[in-house]
Amino acid sequence: MPLNRILFSIFLILSFSTFAQNDLDQRKIYKTQKIENQPEIDGVLDDQVWQNIDVADNFVMVEPGDGDPIPESHRTTARILYDDEAIYVAAVMLESNPERTMRQFTQRDNINQSEFFLMDINTYDDGENQTRFIVTSAGTQADARMTGNNEDYAYNVVWESAVTNDENGWYVEMKIPYSALRFPEKSNQLWGIQFAREITHLNSTYVWNYVNKSVGQMSQYTGLLKGISNIDPPVRLSLYPFTQMSVDRFDGNADFNFNAGMDLKYGINDSFTLDMTLVPDFGQTAYDEIELNLGPFEQVFGENRAFFTEGTELFNKGDLFYSRRVGSTPIGFNAVQTNALENEEIIENPDKTDLLNALKISGRTDRGLGIGFFNAITNKQEAVFRDTLTGNIRREISESVANYNILVLDQRFNKNSSITLINTNVTRDGNFRDGNVTGFLFDIYNKANSFNFEGQAKMSNVNLPGQNKTGFASSLSVERTKGNIRYEIGNEFANETYDINDLGVNFTNNYNNFNWGASYQIFEPKRNYNTYRIGLYGQHLRRYRPDVPVNTGVGGDFFAMTRKRFAFGGGMNINSKFRDYFEPRAENTYIEYKPFGSVNAFVSTDYRKTFAYDIRVYFEEYHKSSQSDFNLNIEPRYRFSDKFNMIYEFEYSYQKERPSYVTRTRDQIIFGLRDQKSIENSLEGSYNFSTKQGLNLSFRHFWSVAGFADNGYTELLGQGQLRPVNYDVSEGRDPDANFNIWNLDLSYRWQFAPGSEAVLLYRNSIFNEDDLSYLGFNESLDNLFAQPARHNLSLRIVYYIDYNRVRNLLQG
């Protein structure tokens, strides 16, 4: 089976690699000019250099309509100039009712409900991998790396912008230095470029170069920027030294910490950039949304460290990179708990590894070859034991020095297709496991952009002490990507030894799954709707070895948005019985759940209004069983002013009488009927004095209680069946749980210079977990507040140093 897949993949590549670039009708061209004197970036377009040059105009609608010309009352124009240091952009947004222009003060990369002007630059004109620059009507900057339709706002570069407004509309000036871009090393540059204007109060978006939403992706519809030639870009070297001071107080003990380090960006050449972090400190990253986890898999968290989120699109190919592995819990952390000798106690067992340094090199050649290299090194961690009789200290290594590497080669062609080769590996000193994974990926469109063929073949190799384990996984899908009616079919496969968990994350293996889907959607407003979509889907899940069915299900979903920006939708599905091979925590063993069905629905009101809300509801029920699952999410938001905004979220979930794993004895796997109730309250608020400084509040309280029925314990038999059994919950064997966690962050952020900022953060956290499942919400909250709270106050200052500015100052 794997050989057939590889041969078929090669056949597809040979078949489609000769397709020509998609012919985009009437692609607009802008011819820029070189200047000697830079315009002042103040938002006032009175500099002489902006006169008598080409104008990009005749914008057309992309949302909600399709190609309608922009009204003369809202005419939008843009101009571009360049020199050896940067490109310069000026834009005019006319507005017949300027008092209706929505201006909300926000911090960087947070557009919210402000209107904005957007420019996309694709320096390789390859239909993908472009950089997006946004300036809102209030002056907020946002920038992102675009890969297809995916926006990565963790990407941050230093550039300048300014906004002004008057009775005729509003105006933008931008300066984008070449240090913020990567482009091929050649005398004449041909860049893809797109301008867009979001008119929020009219619920419409206009673009300069027409976009056919029914075919391909928006990144394939850029215009062409000509005229940039013989530029001599400066050395791309930026330093971000930082210092951080913090005071941490917990349970009567106080610690003072001081740390300093530096991030570095260096342009190796015009196309490739080196990013490095030296002596990193992630003390001010956002807290993880931890929950009570009683399932067989680890909880996965989002990445909050900027170094691991910025410019990582190449390294995320194939989903082989889970960045939280770097600096995660030591691989021997759990084993330490059972390694204490007689009369020994554990006095230290670190729950995370320390990152010593990390670097990444990435870029793309003028022939479309993307190259990425990532490396990180974490320090050795040791657990410390003390003999309670003699006082002797013993140390045991829980994680050795570890080296994490990724190498990616990604060839783009035809402005919409790619072939990728990626390798990840982790090596550890000493008697620990090493991991190595190689993936071959293709993502190919036909000439008409009407069909997409996507596939992956991945091989894992894990070296354990005295054992070598090799695994294989693959996927293949074919999708119709043009027109109102679309459909797809796919297959995913993994053998029983596939394992990428040294640097990636995969919960399951040993599967052979099939899926299909079909949908109908509109791309232009019809009657009362700006858009709507109706979809049908199905799946058939199988075990690879032995070849047995796991589950079969079918369902449908619906989404719609009215002309007044009221969105609603929902879905339902019906499933056959489900064989769960992972809940029992034993090899080749499963529990069989009864057939089940589910329904869900949501509504979302117009965010432009002062008050708006989202409501989501989900219900799941099992056939001829009392087992069920219910979830309700309510999220109101209120905009007090253009500077003050708050969002509250309430979520309630209740899982009733689910047969769940309890424990495993020498010859039995014990299950029990579990009820689990969870309540989560969170609050996000911001008050922005300007677009450069503001206060931010982030609060979350999560409570979850799980209780097992006294007479509901069973023994798992063959064929996934359960048989009642007597199970003694005394002497510390009670599986009930009461989980409570509280986090509060209050920060003041000040961007005191381009690329430089100071952040003052107060953090408060409390945690409690016990087996008192009979307690209600109020009693559990009282128990939580009886625990010692952790208070942390920290100040972090980052200063941006540009090599060229320093050199010019010294020369001056």
UniProtKB/TrEMBL annotation:
InterPro entries named in the record: Carb-bd_dom_fam9, DUF5916
UniProt cross-references to Pfam families, sorted A to Z: CBM9_1, DUF5916
All residue ranges annotated as the Carbohydrate-binding domain in the record: 41-196
Signal peptide (from-to): 1-20
SUPFAM superfamilies assigned: CBD9-like (SSF49344)
UniProt KW keywords: Signal
The keyword Signal is annotated on this UniProt entry: yes
All residue ranges annotated as the DUF5916 domain in the record: 233-809
Protein's name according to its UniProt entry: DUF5916 domain-containing protein
Lineage summary: Bacteria, Pseudomonadati, Bacteroidota, Flavobacteriia, Flavobacteriales
